[in-house]
Amino acid sequence: MSSGTRDRIVTEAMRLFGENGFAGTSIAQIEAAAGLTPGSGGLYRHFPSKEALLSTGIRERIESRNELLPSMSPSSDAPTEAVLLKVAQLGLQRLDDERDVNRILVRDLASAPELLGFIRDAEIRTNHQALVTLLRALGGPQLDAEALAAILIDAISHYWLLRDVFGGEHPLAVPQQRYLTTLVDMAAHLMGDKQ
Amino acid sequence: MSSGTRDRIVTEAMRLFGENGFAGTSIAQIEAAAGLTPGSGGLYRHFPSKEALLSTGIRERIESRNELLPSMSPSSDAPTEAVLLKVAQLGLQRLDDERDVNRILVRDLASAPELLGFIRDAEIRTNHQALVTLLRALGGPQLDAEALAAILIDAISHYWLLRDVFGGEHPLAVPQQRYLTTLVDMAAHLMGDKQ
DNA sequence: TCCATCAGTAAGTACTTACTTACGACGGTA
DNA sequence: TACCGTCGTAAGTAAGTACTTACTGATGGA
């Protein structure tokens, strides 16, 4: 079965791109990691170029993932703080699960407009819209849910990113629980006020 | 004078590292940009290696910069929201001014522990500590100023980073003014409550 | 049994990489 | 004039780059 090799190539390529960057990963490295002979162009039986491999890897990873907020409404009788804390923890989890895609996004895609557009529409705006809907259900009509949702996403994403870049610990050394609690507290205060 | 050439090398190297990444920039490119003959090893009259050049560039940029919050206390009679908004705008300005260093940090330093430590101590924690001091002066003693300062820094940094990666516009398309106003509003609400 | 297709390899393409060596032009000092 | 260290260049090194070409063995359908 050839699709086994193809999938191994994609998996190992995404891991290597995430660890060493796109320019820092060679075709030979990917071949070796996928069980092919490094330097033989075996990879090109499955992909026409290094760029095409990157594009395929990113699209497959993002398309094969489920909704971040599948059905948050059933537990909407819980207090706002508890709901938001759960969402924040889910977001951090998701960032961890797609570590490689997230690293590649900030490192290597600044000059790949098609991939940027795909990620923006298929992942970033989708998650944002789901959070906006949730915030509107919990807060009053005066609330700027779009801005608040963006702030929550950005704060959590950058907390994750810095922790990742600095090898496991956020450079400001604020524990995750204190960080998330304070963030959720801020949001709840704002929402309570615009009720 | 040779130090002219040396400084040109550092300047152009930091620009190219920021634009194309460390692995994506060649010694020949840097030499050409600095006015040397590309491919002649003229760069090596001034730096022993590509890594040493990167290290020197980052350290010089960070050491030669002034305080982000020089003396915010004099205008402490202004309302909290106005002070925080000014600080947020200053932060965005600083991120723009040191665009190259910021890009290099998230793209290429994950496996350069000494540089990470230097940036953390000389830049990130310094700014955080200054903001913590300001927040403590404005808010009550019950406030978790360290967590709040980290959240404000992270939100603003990620807003800047995504706007940079996506070529000028934040993928969530929230205008800067609305974003900052909402962020400052959240902080002020929390601080007012813990007064 | 024949035969076409597929997946992988060996070997090589032309080119780029970081870095080195030998040398000449230069300015200051003796 | 003789000398010295500095700065840049020409020309190279060995290794690595993405990708190609020609081939081999296995597979599966007619």
List the quaternary state of the chains.
homodimer
The CATH topology of the largest domain in chain A is what? Tetracycline Repressor, domain 2
Distance, first to last CA of chain A? 59 Å
* Helix percent band of chain A: 55-70%
* Shape estimate of chain A: elongated
Count of runs of 4 or more consecutive helical residues of chain A: 8
Q: Work out the radius of gyration of chain A.
A: 20 Å
Total discrete domains of chain A: 2
Order of helices and strands of chain A: HHHHHHHH
Give me the CATH architecture of the largest domain in chain A, please.
Orthogonal Bundle
Most extensive interface between two protein chains, with residue counts? A-B, 50 and 50 residues
Topology, number of strands of chain A = 0
Strand content of chain A: under 5%
The description of the largest β-sheet of chain A is: none
* CATH class category name of the largest domain in chain A: Mainly Alpha
Structural class of chain A: mainly alpha
Average of pLDDT of chain A: 93
User: Spans of chain A with pLDDT under 50 lasting ≥5 residues?
Assistant: none
What does this structure look like?
- Two copies of one chain form a homodimer.
- With 195 residues, chain A is mainly α.
- Chain A has two domains: 3-60, Arc Repressor Mutant, subunit A (Orthogonal Bundle); 65-190, Tetracycline Repressor, domain 2 (Orthogonal Bundle).
- Helix content of chain A is 68%, strand content 0%.
- Chain A contains eight helices and no strands.
- In chain A, helix 4 (80-97) crosses helix 8 (176-193) and helix 7 (145-165) packs antiparallel against helix 8.
- The longest helix of chain A is centred in the middle third of the chain and has 26 residues, at 113-138.
- Chain A is elongated.
- The N and C termini of chain A lie far apart (59 Å).
- The relative contact order of chain A is 0.11.
- The interface between A and B is large, with 50 and 50 residues.
- Chain A binds a DNA duplex (30 and 30 nucleotides) through loops.
